[in-house]
Amino acid sequence: xxxxxxxxxxxxxxxxxxxxxxxxxxxxxxxxxxxxxxxxxxxxxxxxxxxxxxxxxxxxxxxxxxxxxxxxxxxxxxxxxxxxxxxxxxxxxxxxxxxxxxxxxxxxxxxxxxxxxxxxxxxxxxxxxxxxxxxxxxxxxxxxxxxxxxxxxxxxxxxxxxxxxxxxxxxxxxxxxxxxxxxxxxxxxxxxxxxxxxxxxxxxxxxxxxxxxxxxxxxxxxxxxxxxxxxxxxxxxxxxxxxxxxxxxxxxxxxxxxxxxxxxxxxxxxxxxxxxxxxxxxxxxxxxxxxxxxxxxxxxxxxxxxxxxxxxxxxxxxxxxxxxxxxxxxxxxxxxxxxxxxxxxxxxxxxxxxxxxxxxxxxxxxxxxxxxxxxxxxxxxxxxxxxxxxxxxxxxxxxxxxxxxxxxxxxxxxxxxxxxxxxxxxxxxxxxxxxxxxxxxxxxxxxxxxxxxxxxxxxxxxxxxxxxxxxxxxxxxxxxx
Length: 481
Ligand SMILES: O=C(O)[C@H]1O[C@H](OP(=O)(O)OP(=O)(O)OC[C@H]2O[C@@H](n3ccc(=O)[nH]c3=O)[C@H](O)[C@@H]2O)[C@H](O)[C@@H](O)[C@@H]1O
Known about the structure:
The protein is of the alpha/beta class and 481 residues long. It is built from 15 helices and 17 strands.
């Protein structure tokens, strides 16, 4: 136990008085002598010198993140952009139980990547903490494929939701790394550790209208990040995997021919978001042409469902309706809303039929042409946004406080409508979920996840009155379950 004096921050000083040796109390601050000042300064200088040397020799470490999801470390990033996310990586590395490239790290990655069935795929899923990425990872794992995920868990929307999805995957033995697709060295280490058969590249900066606020994050994720993934798949992986990646219905931009077919013009994007996705399709062409990389782009049409993205209209409207807050509807807007389970089946079908890459990382040459494909994954039945709101109102048992305005000039397009005949022909893609049924699944999850005391209306076909919502723990309802 410290003495009372020490505990109070005082020191006892000997002094002579009248021949007697006495003790007196002196504040400890007064004892900070010139020599301890010097010592302090020397320590600070030495530390700065060490940091400088470290940064000089290992600059790439400053932009790398590599903790394993399973170590339980949480490092959500303040700020809205993916490009900001990597700055926390040094923290992630020091807190990780199994560090990047270490034997334990490799062992964990290989375990997660190992298929649980003969002929199973081994898939690297980027954006696995995201909405579509998490559902696809669960579905692949459920059918016996090996999956390794990565995600930078940025705070474009609530990172807690992404951590929740990560936990769902961890519960099923799927590792999701805290990592950024722009970290070339990390991707290299991943491909060194595992001969992935496929990459499902879903990490991106999503959201059409946010591109006006944060244009550079779209370039960083959707252009630079895509190049980073293609570079690693083409030059660092041996053998090269096939890549399936998320393009967007927004590439149709100002196209007015409907339904949208892959053969239609896509050279008039209405938003920077759409432009980066269109750029991605051009970049895919180049990597396929030069390196023989098998590449499939999937144009998603307004995907919705449980564990969805809170920035999307159906989700934010549901929150506003519950909170009694106003919502703004763009007059006459229509969307080909596509339910997550249908999209997951499309993604899995695209992976299964991707065809091999023909290039070699070692020789840098390709042995012949490799598949280069692009598909619409939509629902084929556009619905007015006002109808989507009416379904939500009915399910939630509450009227929305609606404000209807003309569509602003914010990158939005008035309608989307998918022709999916190519996907149907090549891998049997057939969307089966109506907006009514899909939103019901969403609201079921929404009420459970946010623990809302809401009675959900039964489907109109039953003609029954609203029943109490179940209170059991929220779970994914995708093909994974
Ligand atoms: O299909 C796609 O390619 C895109 O789908 C969605 O984009 P969007 O269709 O604009 O989805 P929401 O932001 O959820 O908007 C849905 C509809 O609600 C309308 N809306 C949106 C916001 C609002 O305040 N009011 C409103 O009426 C929009 O005009 C749109 O018609 C996603 O956010 C994109 O990431 C994705 O790439």
